[in-house]
């Protein structure tokens, strides 16, 4: 019998992927974790039935979440990753040799599963420049003052416990945890399907950071296929390039970096309407 995984994106649209082989299922303290194999897309990680990554396109997400801010920040050494227990974000940040990373993931079970089943992402987690903390990212961030150059929020959708990572209170903690020239970057959902979420983030973030700019990236296996990230900074502009791109990537380069900050009108409208 054929076994298909389906994630609904709206009441009447979604994505279906054939399960060639179920690999892992666990109900952790926080969520349901599933890993399965698809012939075309490779291994896939879902949390509470929502696709977090596929081996075929995770590089787009992780490279574009990480490199824009690390290429703009001229002297970044201290990085905080909130979420990102799969290790993909840490893997990309480690390409910047001078960076040390604190990674705070709430769900230890995600880390354990990814160490076992996604070695090309999670190998980064055993690098000596990465320190792992399994605790609530909002509480962790609150305790830090002027410590980080860059904070990267690699969260799930704003559902359940992850909602906290989209609130003004958390963004304020990030602002205080950053040094005076710090940058915050976060995944910010789909400009087609989650316009209300993006608008809320823009409102919250622009009340705190002088620079708040969204950028767009195609991610074929995420809702609508078009995804966004937000770059927030105290000092630097997203198109001021301070560092060379002397590391290997499959998606990111300076042309892509520039182009991704150009927004179509329907996306600009998210921020201009009341
Ligand atoms: N975090 C963002 C996943 C959002 C996808 N949403 C969905 N499928 N409904 C990915 C974590 C990868 N490190």
CATH superfamily of the largest domain: Vaccinia Virus protein VP39
Q: What shape does the CA trace take?
A: globular
| CATH domain topology of the largest domain | Rossmann fold
Question: What's the CATH architecture of the largest domain?
Answer: 3-Layer(aba) Sandwich
What is the total number of structural domains? 2
Give the amount of beta strand, in percent.
25-35%
Largest sheet: 7 strands, mixed
Low-confidence stretches: none
**Separate helix tally:** 9
Can you tell me the CATH class of the largest domain? Alpha Beta
Order of helices and strands: EEEEEEHEHEHHEHEHEHEEHH
Overall pLDDT, averaged? 97
Distance between the termini: 50 Å
Q: What is the spatial order of strands in the main beta sheet? A: 9-8-7-10-11-13-12
Class of secondary structure makeup: alpha/beta
Number of strands: 13
Task: Indicate the percent of residues in helices.
Answer: 25-40%
Radius of gyration: 18 Å
What small molecules are bound in this structure?
A: 1-{4-[(3-aminopropyl)amino]butyl}guanidine
Q: What would you say about this model in short?
A:
The longest helix has 15 residues, at 58-72. The chain has helices at 58-72, 88-93, 108-117, 119-122, 137-142, 168-177, 195-206, 254-260, 265-272, and strands at 4-8, 14-18, 21-27, 32-38, 42-47, 50-54, 78-83, 100-104, 130-133, 148-154, 178-187, 211-218, 226-233.
